[in-house]
């Protein structure tokens, strides 16, 4: 059980981050959820999670593209035992047409935010002699696709940063690993299905199999709760000696 532990999950008002927050709460951790927005429904989500699992859940707004806000998030939370760096965005374009501001935003949110939160969280973890850092990378942290230059560069960078964090904390009760999801069925991905069906003139099943899961040999989406379950495993005592590595949850994508 993660009772008495505090987890911060960046970018967690939807998708994989929310799945991680839910599974951490189910395992007994107190959780801080975060996103860039500050809407009543964000705070309501925290209350709902807290009530469902009998743990403390707070919503803290912070923009993960801003170094100061990344560091302040950790401080406002009062430090953390578990840090899940999950916030991420995507943009798809050829290199010579890739907008500079999109490149900068993807590098800031998908990569640099993890550096800032980790730097702010590590002193407290070292002091307690226990900590877990889980970076949500991607199959694109291990392989590439055309037109995703910034995303692939940031996710490869995040895998590298994961290894350095593991080396600097080895033997101190702190571990750092990256999860590399393949295609996960999040609301964002679900919303793309109707457009893809229209664009390819295919029914739902065919467009999922032939287009969206083209590179995922299982031909099945991974789920947000499977991602959350993998985070919880990495926080368990079974994973004490797992550090500096990647766990692919990708239906065989990177085995191809
Ligand atoms: P999502 O859009 O549902 O979640 C992204 C989260 O990040 C949201 O909560 C969003 O509000 C937040 N966010 C975006 N910009 C932010 C900012 N500046 N500051 C704070 N929060 C911000 O998408 P998702 O699919 O759940 O993605 C979560 C992570 O998983 C990302 O890092 C993504 O790259 C990674 N991932 C997703 C998939 C997939 O198939 N869905 C596959 C591999 C990796």
TrEMBL record:
Pfam families xref list: adh_short_C2
GO molecular function: 3-hydroxybutyrate dehydrogenase activity
Organism: Cereibacter changlensis JA139
Family, per entry: Belongs to the short-chain dehydrogenases/reductases (SDR) family.
Cited PROSITE patterns: ADH_SHORT
A GO biological process held by the record: monocarboxylic acid metabolic process
Record's protein name: 3-hydroxybutyrate dehydrogenase
InterPro entries recorded: 3-OHbutyrate_DH, NAD(P)-bd_dom_sf, Sc_DH/Rdtase_CS, SDR, SDR_fam
């Amino acid at each position: 059980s993660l009772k008495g532990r505090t987890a911060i999950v960046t970018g967690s008002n939807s998708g994989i981050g929310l799945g991680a927050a839910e599974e951490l709460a189910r395992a007994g951790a107190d959780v801080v959820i975060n996103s860039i927005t500050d809407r009543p429904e964000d705070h309501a989500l925290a209350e709902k999670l807290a009530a469902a699992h009998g743990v403390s859940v707070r919503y803290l707004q912070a923009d993960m593209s801003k170094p100061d806000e990344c560091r302040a998030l950790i401080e406002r939370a009062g430090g953390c035992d578990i840090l899940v760096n999950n916030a991420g965005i995507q943009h798809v374009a050829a290199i010579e047409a890739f907008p500079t501001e999109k490149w900068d935003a993807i590098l800031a949110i998908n990569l640099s935010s993890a550096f800032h939160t980790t730097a702010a969280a590590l002193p407290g973890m070292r002091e307690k002699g226990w900590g877990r850092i889980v970076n949500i990378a991607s199959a694109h942290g291990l392989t590439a696709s055309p037109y995703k230059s910034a995303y692939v560069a940031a996710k490869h960078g995040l895998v590298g940063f994961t290894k350095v964090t593991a080396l600097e904390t080895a033997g101190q009760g702190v571990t750092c690993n990256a999860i590399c999801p393949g295609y996960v069925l999040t609301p964002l991905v679900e919303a793309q299905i109707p457009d893809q069906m229209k664009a390819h003139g295919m029914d739902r099943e065919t467009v999922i199999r032939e287009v969206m899961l083209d590179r995922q040999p299982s031909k099945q989406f991974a789920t947000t709760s499977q991602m959350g379950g993998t985070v919880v495993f990495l926080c368990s005592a079974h994973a004490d000696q797992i550090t500096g590595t990647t766990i692919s949850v990708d239906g065989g994508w990177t085995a191809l």
